[in-house]
Write a structure and sequence with these properties.
The chain is built from seven helices and 15 strands. The protein is of the alpha/beta class and 264 residues long. The protein has two domains: 167 residues, UDP N-Acetylglucosamine Acyltransferase, domain 1, CATH 2.160.10.10; 68 residues, no CATH class. The strands form three sheets. It has a six-stranded mixed sheet with strand order 3-6-9-12-14-15. Strands 1-4-7-10-13 form a five-stranded parallel sheet. Strands 2-5-8-11 form a four-stranded parallel sheet, with no helix packed on it. The longest helix is centred in the last third of the chain and has 29 residues. The protein is elongated and about 95 Å long.
Length: 264
């Protein structure tokens, strides 16, 4: 038992940089308290002491703001960060090393007495406010973005965002994406590894800037070749950026005549 507790606490320290001590984690983390209540309530549920199990679950909800039905099956090293507003339904099944943030719902979509809540694989992370609804399966190592609503199965290792949730797959290396990566590398910028339909306005704006720079580079090259054919030697290659000194540029000398020594 002590070994399992030590293993669990280590997993909490790995996932929450705000955790400072074992005493702090055990005494003021509502996610851990909710899990303790659930372990006891689930044992009563298995023993068919259903009313006592529900009453203990209700007590845990009052104290932590986290509602876990005693019938839910939860694996090892399960961690709820912050926790307020988390709801886990009766037929939910959760694997090992799963992390939920506040406002997450593992809910059902039917009133029939059957498997109606999600099944989460191992090492799944569900962002704040996300809703996983119905008897669907979220595969191992999957990620669900904050405030997403997921109603379909999620493949292992996938990332899901949006309403309704969409799987963000690997980006296909088309000509435009290759041009962007080449331009980003040329100016010393490591482009974001995101798919084209990722709902990120910052990434979209950067893509447009890289497209514009690529077009400008092409026109400068054409102009340089035309001038050389006309006998005019010019160098219109793009200068290489000093990426290391972008934040701290070297001090520039004062304009001529502003130096006190020169004026004296």
């Amino acid at each position: 038992m002590l070994k399992n507790l030590h293993e669990y606490l280590e997993s909490v320290f790995q996932r929450d940089p705000a955790a400072r001590s074992t005493l702090e984690v055990l005494t003021i983390y509502p996610g851990i308290h909710a899990l303790m209540f659930h372990r006891m309530a689930h044992r009563l549920w298995v023993w068919r002491l259903r009313w006592l199990a529900r009453m203990l679950s209700l007590l845990g909800r009052w104290l932590t703001g986290i509602e876990i039905h005693p019938g839910a099956i939860i694996g090892k090293r399960f961690f709820i960060d912050h926790g307020m507003g988390v709801v886990i339904g009766e037929t939910a099944e959760i694997g090992d090393d799963v992390t939920l943030y506040h406002g997450v719902t593992l809910g059902g979509t039917t009133w029939r007495k059957e498997k109606r809540h999600p099944t989460l694989g191992n090492n799944v992370v569900i962002g704040a406010g996300a809703k996983i609804l119905g008897p669907i399966t979220v595969g191992d190592n999957a990620r669900v973005g904050s405030n997403s609503v997921v109603v379909k199965d999620v493949p292992a290792g996938a990332t899901v965002v949006g309403i309704p949730g969409r799987v963000m797959g690997a980006r296909t290396p088309d000509d435009k994406s290759q041009q962007r990566e080449a331009m980003a590398k040329k100016i010393g910028f490591d482009a974001y590894g995101q798919s084209q339909d990722m709902p990120d306005p910052v990434a979209h704006a950067i893509d447009l800037i890289l497209d514009h720079m690529h077009l400008s580079d092409q026109k400068l090259k054409i102009l340089s070749e035309a001038l050389e054919k006309a006998g005019v030697k010019v160098n219109l290659d793009m200068p290489r950026l000093d990426v290391e000194n972008l934040e701290n540029p070297p001090a520039t000398p004062p304009p001529h005549g502003d130096n006190p020594k020169e004026n004296s």
